[in-house]
Specification:
Length: 408
Amino acid sequence: MIKSPLFPLWQIDQQEYKALCAYLQLSPQDPLFDRLADYLLHAPFRYSRPTGFSLFLAKPKLSKFRIARLDMLSKFFIKDHPVRYILNGAIALYECDGQGYAEISAAPVGWKVPFSLIKWGGDFALSLSITVVWFFWQYLSYLIGMPFQAKDDLTGKTVLITGASRGLGLEILLYSLQQGAEVIGTVRDRAAYDQLMAQLPDEAPVKLIIADLSQANAITDALQENQLSPDSIDIAVLCAGLKHSDTSVLSMAELRETFAVNCFSNMELSKWLCSSGSKTSLVLISSIGRWHGMHASAGYNASKAALSIWGESLEMELYATGNKKCNIMIVEPGIFASGMMKETASSKFLFASRYKLAEKIISGALSGKKVLRYPYWFAILTWTICLGGRNFQNYFFARASKTIGKED
């Protein structure tokens, strides 16, 4: 069973499935949910991606009320809305199931028929009235928000993502596929390759490349071996990261490996991309932790600080040489659930949405943004702590590391 949707624009979770069943007056069944989830897993690659107002309506989570409104609208006006495929898929699956067919085909008989027809007519008139009001309210909200809508259409674009097998890299890979991109992802080894490919539908336009980024030139060699050139890549998100938790900053082997993955592999790939003269948006995934030190992490924060400053230096060089084709965006996110960090009951409120972060990264890359710090309140909190001085930082981060979950 799929616990969480890979493509939230098209797939539904258990809560949304229950709302769907409540609207259709059907009993939730786990086996049918699994089959519906599998059908919807392929939807992004079989059907047209919603755009404009349809996309605006597709983003919020589904409730029974929302499904009722979208059902009526998608029958007549917004036929490319994902809810149409969700409803059609669910009904088709229930029609092929014994219990489901009995529930769908249940109908009044005898003297109950005219009363049921009157009730259905009244319900339809009421639903139509509510839907019309709701539609105009939603459309007004859409028009008001249009100037602030983020760019997110990746149709016809190729996105390169390092560290694509888990965490933020995986989230960006899935989001890019959902938005219509062709994706090139790098993973560390064959096990990660097989695991990721097993999750994705066969028709997903993704090419995975195995490269151990702790080895010098591994990433550029792997790309060239796969006959990929810089001019074929529109956006490069350098997301691969390594963190040795509970490891001293004086542990030289781990320190070198941390810098090799978090810094030098990104620098090598940036050189390969920016030296070609092709137009590329280069996204360096740093960390808000680059503003302060951190004990027992084998220099993770130091490697991110080096990456951010190096990225700024690269941008200065490109500006000085008149190279305007390679845009540099430095991303310094707060904490989010990943292999490096997991939520605990006491720290859950600090964690950012990984999906929302992926959305903002792609939007920023498309719009030419230079710096992204998300959530921004976390950046302000970090800077405030840093202003307290090193003694305060020593005390604060020693306690914080015991509260926030560490590497899995």
